[in-house]
Amino acid sequence: xxxxxxxxxxxxxxxxxxxxxxxxxxxxxxxxxxxxxxxxxxxxxxxxxxxxxxxxxxxxxxxxxxxxxxxxxxxxxxxxxxxxxxxxxxxxxxxxxxxxxxxxxxxxxxxxxxxxxxxxxxxxxxxxxxxxxxxxxxxxxxxxxxxxxxxxxxxxxxxxxxxxxxxxxxxxxxxxxx
Length: 178
Prior knowledge:
Layout: H1 2-48, H2 57-75, H3 77-119, H4 121-124, E1 126-127, E2 134-135, E3 153-154, E4 161-162
Antiparallel strand pairs: 1-2, 3-4
């Protein structure tokens, strides 16, 4: 039943659109003809030094032209909207793709940071003291520069394992003797 209703509404819209597409330009044409008659009468009065007899037609022509323009715009509104969409969609698509290409590396960096933050993997990595590269917790050597990653200095205060060259404990701040 809904399909039948949709068809009747679409049919009504189509017939109304056809009426507006004919009536709009017709009203504009009538308005322009009336306007020309009024203008000819007005300017011919200057040559004869008499009064214009059809000056009131100006006030009749303007509403005809206005209503005709509105009817025409409503009659062709769907076609204009489809044309604009077909013209604008490729431009919008290209713009979005251009912006996506320019921000791809930044988005990857943010996504990687979020992933590491959620998984907590950044905290479990051992950072190389020499180059700053994060390494797996069980690594003995840096994957970037090959430096030793052993944590062999145990804090006497809290028992935390620290890098061999640490001057303070990573956990409690205890100052190691030099």
